[in-house]
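User: I'm putting together a teaching handout on how multi-component assemblies are represented. Below are the sequence lines for each component of a complex, exactly as they appear in our records. Could you produce the 3D structure of the whole assembly as structure tokens, so the students can see both representations side by side? Please keep the chain order the same as the input.
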Amino acid sequence: AVGGKKKNQNRNKSTNKQESSRIPKPGDYNTSEQKQACKKHELYVSFRDLGWQDWIIAPEGYAAFYCDGECSFPLNAQMNATNHAIVQTLVHLMFPDNVPKPCCAPTKLNAISVLYFDDSSNVILKKYRNMVVRSCGCH
Amino acid sequence: DNHVHSSFIYRRLRNHERREIQREILSILGLPHRPRPFSPGKQASSAPLFMLDLYNAMAVEEEEEGVAPYRAAPLLGHSPALTTAHDTNFLNDADMVMSFVNLVEKDKEFSHQRRHYKEFRFDLTQIPDGEAVTAAEFRIYKDRFLLRACFFFFCICRDAETFLLDSKKVQASNGGWLVFDITATSNHWVMNPQQNFGLQLCVETMDGRSINIKSAGIIGRNGPQSKQPFVVAFFKASGVLLRSVR
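Assistant: Of course. Below is the structure of the complete assembly, with chains in the same order as your input.
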């Protein structure tokens, strides 16, 4: 804002200071910003929909899951808010550029088997270990 | 669709989405492109039927998370004498199972030996690199005979040196799949494809007389699709297929 409005700026500044020190409560976010907690999301892949039933014998499709959602450090007996702030500060001092952020990723994976024809009409049964997400968590 | 969970988002894919997902899944399956098998009505052949049994057996084990010993998949409903119950877990240990259709079949008869045999050839060069054969079987169907109460002696050899691989003594009245263990030869062929001269199947009566294969009830390439001979091989991948995170 151009000069002349110094008073306003001061007022702005003081209110800003108030704002930053106040930790927003979950209710403060409007719904679009509020992200869900980290969890497993479902996505069903149908080989029929992909037009592949002429070479994939089984399965008809499979439940391909993925992990998504907000990860906040789990505050618990060992990691209360104070320790959490200390960890964040220490890590920030060591690596100022990157802010340590837990990520929502798989914690358990399942195998999936697929039965299909190859170009010479031989039949292949292949087991893909660790291919389908079973559960998610914050790492 | 009752197995599709209610929370699944179910909608028709747009073309570019479909191509994108196809590319993604082919990379997950480790395939350079989508296969285009040629033979019509292939699903009703003996090998796919057998492999579908294995798939169902594997799917049950994955569900149970158990390690039940693998038993030969339920055959085409025949006497136990012709089935081979595998008490090992090579189905569990296998990362991949592959079946091969018979490429050539010649009936041969040598006059000086009066020896009948049928020749079968399988192309194992399609096996992806890095896979080691942990077990391999040659499966051929035998019709049952009611009249003769005698035994046949089946032997399977590797051509060129007529190196005996496996043999079976079977009652003529028994019908079903004969299973011969050809693990050693399959590994040899994978390492030296140029030495793959195929298999020879011969049949003798118990008094050592060589007889024509067909007259012993053996079904060859010209038999019904669901009874044609094939080879099935079990593999253990050397490196685990690691999927990059997307």
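A couple of points students might notice: Chain B has four helices and eleven strands. Chain B touches chain A through 45 residues (CB under 8 Å).
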